[in-house]
Amino acid sequence: MEKPRSEPCRPVTPSAPDGGASISPAELLSRLDGAHSELLAICDRLEGIADSLPNTLNVRNCREAAGELVPVVMRAHRVEEEEVFLRIAGEARTAALQKTLDHLRTEHCEDECFAEELADALKQAGEGKVQPETLGYMLRGFFEAMRRHINFERERFLTLAGG
Ligand SMILES: [Fe+2]
Predict the structure, then answer these.
(1) pTM of the full structure
(2) How far is the CA of 149 from the centre of ligand 1 (A)?
(3) N or C, which end of the chain is more exposed by having fewer CB within 10 Å?
(4) CA of 85 to the centre of ligand 1 (A)
(5) Residue 147 CB burial class (10 angstroms; 0-12, 13-18, ≥19)
(6) One-letter-per-residue 3-state SS of the chain
(7) 117 Cα: distance to centroid of ligand 1 (angstroms)
(8) Contact, 63 vs 123, CB < 8 A?
């Protein structure tokens, strides 16, 4: 059974890996920015593949993107959840913010599942096992949702950090 969207799909780490060492809002934003930059780079790469369809699919590019996709997504989400989400707003955290963070964690889980499916589709596309229309639909669905998610996080966390 699917979980409600407001409930995280995996256990929330109770504290930061470094024991919650004090980090400035600027440093938190810098870490978030680093995670987002990696995600946006892979989104651009996926968009390039989508734009090449249906006639000029580069099989090697698909294989490389397939190999990078899940590790990049997992790494970025780990930084966001274990370094940024645990510290943002500190003791001033409200119930509304907590709800937002839970929602973002749920989106992360959904995006990780989607990334795995998309990586499989990219591998199979090189073998002619996936229709270009299907691959294009999956690619655009993934990177458009990812960019929306990143824009939301940037706006929300810049406000919280006083940026
Ligand atoms: Fe995120």
Answers:
(1) 0.86
(2) 6
(3) N
(4) 9
(5) middle
(6) CCCCCCCCCCCCCCCCCCCCCCCCHHHHHHHHHHHHHHHHHHHHHHHHHHHHCCCCCCHHHHHHHHHHHHHHHHHHHHHHHHHHHCCCCHHHCCHHHHHHHHHHHHHHHHHHHHHHHHHHHHHHHCCCCCCHHHHHHHHHHHHHHHHHHHHHHHHHHHHHCCC
(7) 19
(8) yes
Q: Which of 30-44, 54-68, 84-98 has the lowest mean pLDDT?
A: 84-98
Q: Which residues contact 82 (CB under 8 A, 6 or more apart)?
A: 13, 16, 17
Determine the distance separating the centroid of ligand 1 and the alpha carbon of 65, expressed in angstroms.
20
CA of 63 from ligand 1 middle (Å) equals: 25
17 preceded by a cis bond (ω within 30 of 0)? no
For residue range 94-116, what is the model confidence (pLDDT) as tens digits?
888 889 999 999 999 999 999 99
From ligand 1's centre to the CA of 56, what distance in Å?
32
CA-to-CA distance for 49 and 140, rounded, in angstroms? Answer: 10
How far out from the chain centre does Cα 76 lie? 6
The Å distance, Cα 129 to ligand 1 centre, comes to: 31
Distance 153 CA to ligand 1 centre (A): 6
